[in-house]
Each structure stands twice: as C-alpha cells, then as structure tokens.
Amino acid sequence: MRAVQITELSGPESALTLTDDLPDPVLSHFMTPDQGVVVEVEAAGVSFPEVLQTRGEYQVKPELPFVPGSEVAGTVREASDGAGVEPGDRVAAFCMLGGFAELAAAPPHFTFRLPEGLDAAQGAGLILNYHTALFALKLRGRLSEGETVLVHGGAGGVGTASIQVANGLGARTIAVVSSDEKEQVARQAGGDEVVRSDGAWKDEVKELSGGGGVDVVLDPVGGDRFTDSLRSLGEGGRLVVVGFTGGSIPEVKVNRLLLNNVDVVGAGWGAYVMGKPQVTRDLGAELDQLSREGHIRPIVGARFALEDASQALQLIDGRGATGKVVLEP
Fold it and tell me: Alpha-carbon distance 258 to 282, whole Å?
C-alpha cells in the first residue's frame, strides 16, 4: 500500500518519505488478532502531534521509520467479531499511528460509525478534536448549561470543536483568534463572540462577560497569554490546559489561584482514555447525539494529497491552519 513515513527527525520540511510498497495492515497490527478493525482510508487527519513527531519532540517516539497519523475516516475492510462495526460500514477511527496511508488498523472501541451527514474529511477530524473538546469541557472543566467559555485558538481544529461542543452543552462561547480569516472560521463554527489575540482581549472578555469573568477558559495554545487567561476567569472559574501549540509552556504563580478561587485543570484526553474503553464509548455516544442534534459539524480547512503531507504539516507548524487539515489518499 501507499503510505507516508517519517524516516528522519529533521522537521516537517524534510522528515517525510512517500512509499508505495508497505504491507497492508492486518488485525494484529496494533492489537490482538481478535480485537481490531482495518479501514480503507478516505481521509486522514493531520494534527500538531505529527509536527512534533517529525522532530522527535512528541512523547510517543516510535522506532524509525514509521507511518504517522492518529485518526482516519473511511470504509471498514475487515473487523473482528464483536467489534461493533462490519465490512462496508463508514467509520471514523483513532488508530494512534499508521493513518497517513491507504489502509489503517484501529481498536474497536476507537472506531465509530460516521454520523449521518458527515463526509470522510469531516470524519477525520471527529475523534481527536471532538473527544478532546468534550473530555476537556465536561469531564475536566465541569462545564454547565448557561456558563460562558473562552476558547483560545478559536479557528483551529480543537478550537472549532470546542466551540461546537460548548454550544451543544448549552454554554455561551467567546473565541480568541488572530486574523480576519480566522474570525470568520470561529464564527462559522458557532462562536457567539470573537476577540483578537493581538489586542486588549482580556479587557474585552471581561466586558463581554458583564465584568465578572468567564466560567471556563479552554487553552490549547499556552505561551504568554496564560496569565491573562487566569485574570479572565470569574470566581470559581476553571482554566483547562489542553496543549501548547504556541510553543512555550507557561508557569503558574499559585497566588493567582487564591485571589479568585480559581482552578487550573489539565486535560490529557489520550493518556486518560487509553485504558478506559467505556469512557471512550460514552464520549462517542454523547458526540453522536450532539451530531444528530445539529451541533457537530467539523470544519475542514485544507485538503492535501498523500504525497503533499509535508505541506500539510508545514501549514500547521506555521500556525496557518484553520479547522481540520486532512490528507486524502
């Protein structure tokens, strides 16, 4: 099969190699032979972890060469007994590795039928971003109906997913973006209000929240805006840390937590759910319900051919991506 491999740790410009002769995955690829699904890939999601993998900076460090790509969508070719899906079903799947290829293998509890009305490219952005958003907002951020959520990176994959999930849970959303184009994407995702990261966004957020501050901040960016995020919280607010696409990892002066009785909460979706299949199924079921209600519509920002995977990763690395970036083998 055709696939893209990371063959050296030199960054997204030069680390990738296209090959035409990798063996097809079988059910034993990532799991025991009686517990797997093989998917004919129509779209593969491209995310920030793959950028880090090209530099050897991600916590998962497979032996070189390897096929990156953690999430795919397409048609089931083969499924073990009891997998919950059958050959011919259209699915979204989280495969952890191996997604940048024509075929990928995934565990059954990370394989979900595509909701009606979503195409493969949208399905390729469904698991990593939307499961992260629901986990971060509801399980970790304790979001309740009627609360207000501030979403950093509001035009990115996690950001747009978080806006839609928060709206589906009955919350009001304020998105932080850096350009006119990204403002349009955040509004397309359903953001109730949008502020600019290069302006006095903290003051604007305070004003938009009636002066009391927001209930939850969801932050996949990190960097130097972290302290102002804390200042944007109202009493009892929660700042949920999802990632550090901004590059630097901020530090917390814990006296700031005392001033307004606020929490800083980590939301490591992958580490939490990996050994908890039922949690994954529960998240999938709730997202399926939100999709049926019309809240979940992944925004596909850019589509690339498999041989252009380097360009896709560079787009993300340069902070130019909006919505979900996908490869279409």
Answer: 34
